[in-house]
Amino acid sequence: MADSTTRERVFAKVAEREQFGYEYSNANASLELLVARVVNGKKLPFEAGAYHVSMRGALNGCGNEHVCEASLKVIVGGAIFHEVAEGDGPVDALDQALRLALGKSHLPSVTHIKLVDYSVGLVLPAAGVKAKTRVFIVVSDGKATWRTEGVSQNIVEASGLALSDGYEYALLRRVQS
Q1: Which domains are present in the chain?
Q2: pLDDT per residue over 41-57, tens digit each?
């Protein structure tokens, strides 16, 4: 990233994403991945495609059991892996479906990767329920910890973007090790 043209492209991309609502000071891995994509044209080792998340339960405040299910298509090297999983919530279900799909691909195992923390905030709180949602995820492989983020008006999509970055970063760390 020595030449000024490359630096300008990186800064322009970061500025564009920050205008959308990203806050890279709290997401080291997402920033590193963005720079790698701009500088090296690095592609994701996988592409998370279409997803569907559903929940059933009652909003009565009695702690009733909820059923959360996610369906996710993941593309790895042109092959499509479509998995369905249940979880404690929509993000957990999406995480489980992503793990299943990646586990069936030719990529290295991600079973040692753990979601350590998850937080949600609004990009423009004054916009209320129509505000963009910013999701920060802290991920660990037991040796290192990194932070990723996703931004969308849809909290599940923002979560999926952050999850994808977390697993991509983990896979790229394994290749570099």
Answers
A1: 46-106 (3.30.160)
A2: 777 788 888 999 998 88
